[in-house]
Design brief:
- By secondary structure, the chain is mainly β.
- The chain is 6% helix and 35% strand.
- It has two domains: 203 residues, Aromatic compound dioxygenase (Protocatechuate 3,4-Dioxygenase, subunit A), CATH 2.60.130.10; 89 residues, Immunoglobulin-like (Sandwich).
- A hairpin with a 2-residue loop joins strand 7 and strand 8.
- The radius of gyration is 21 Å and the shape is elongated.
- About 8% of the residues have low confidence.
């Protein structure tokens, strides 16, 4: 089915949030880190000079963020856990962005973004977001970043928990493994080894123990796998609540599909508080709308929508489902991730 991103995930906790950088919710720095048991709050870091507000741009909902950028293939997996109980947090949005192999960011044309041109301002590569699955995990396909003067190799990320709280930080890597990647691929990483270590980087100079992702060779011998667990404020298995979530709750509640993870059949539970019409859209993890279900003239009460992948003509895989409710009060949206059992 043809891509349809305009209305995708303009929903609670994802799009239309008032701010992704709430000043009244700063995260602690590492030397002041909060912790509960074995979990330590991810240190807060700057979004850097090259962030883009993805609020109204669903183009970025995708796993593969490379576009035309070349470099050593990197499969990045992040696991989001709640600080209060160290359990996975599902259905939260995770944004990533980073420079290409030469140290250049898309979306900006200015002297700081060395090597940028007017065309660079219109580029969108190496940026994207995903929703965490039942295990609290997101996966991205990208390239191993290069470096630029004054900064060690790093990846920016943002965990958007609700319309009132986001965590922003950065990932770095083991120095020896990072330098080995650059040395093994001199035709791609022409600037050579990274001259800045995390301890010499102003962003990480106060400590980076909880911001180093594991980095291991892939099965094909040429790619790498990176992994990191990230603890954010909140409780695992539940997302936060802000203004938009409270407004939704006055009109409907979207439940987690069950079973979840699923094999080939699952059910979407919905509770309506007013007479409404409903649209359920299913999206794959590259942001393509793959099916849509419409139900009109619904009465208040409990509603269960069964989904059979074979009947829908769809492969069994992880999807995001978005429900749009229209009633006399307005239009309301919410979405969640349904996870394929492995």
């Amino acid at each position: 089915m043809k891509k349809n991103r305009r209305d995708f995930i303009k929903a609670t906790g994802l799009l239309g949030a008032a701010s992704f950088l709430p000043l009244n919710n700063p995260l602690s720095m590492l030397n002041k880190a909060d912790n509960f048991g074995d979990c330590v709050l991810i240190p807060s870091e700057t979004a850097g000079p090259f962030p883009l507000d993805l609020t109204d741009n669903t183009y970025y909902f995708r796993q593969d963020v490379r576009e035309d950028r070349t470099g050593t293939l990197l499969k990045l997996k992040l696991k989001i856990i709640g600080l209060q109980n160290c359990l996975p947090m599902q259905n939260v949005r995770v944004n990533i962005w980073h420079c290409d192999r030469a140290g250049l960011y898309s979306g900006y044309y200015n002297p700081i973004n060395i090597g940028s041109t007017p065309e660079t301002a219109n580029m969108k590569w190496l940026r994207g977001y995903q929703l965490t699955d039942a295990n609290g995990e997101v996966e991205f396909i990208t390239i191993f970043p290069g470096w630029y003067q004054g900064r060690t190799c790093h990846i920016h990320f943002q965990v958007h928990v609700s319309s009132s709280y986001s965590a922003i930080s950065q990932i770095t890597f083991d120095v020896d493994t990072k330098q080995a990647i650059y040395a093994a691929n001199p035709a791609e990483y022409t600037k050579g080894p990274d001259p800045t270590t995390p301890s010499k980087d102003n962003i990480f100079s106060d400590g980076y123990q909880y911001q180093v992702a594991t980095l291991t060779p892939g099965d094909d011998g040429g790619s790498y796998n990176a992994y990191m667990e990230i603890a954010v404020k909140g409780s695992g298995t539940t997302a936060g609540t802000g203004h938009l979530e409270k407004e939704n709750a006055k009109n409907f509640t979207l439940g987690q599909n069950y079973p979840n993870p699923y094999i080939d059949e699952t059910t979407i539970p919905i509770r309506l508080l007013h007479p409404s019409s409903l649209t359920l859209d299913l999206y794959d993890l590259q942001g393509n709308k793959v099916t849509s279900i419409q139900k009109n003239n619904l009465l208040p009460g409990e509603l269960n929508i069964p989904l059979n992948m074979k009947t829908l003509g769809l492969p069994a895989r992880s999807y995001v489902y978005q429900v749009t409710i229209k009633n006399n009060n307005g239009t309301y949206k919410d979405c969640k991730m349904m996870t394929l059992a492995k």
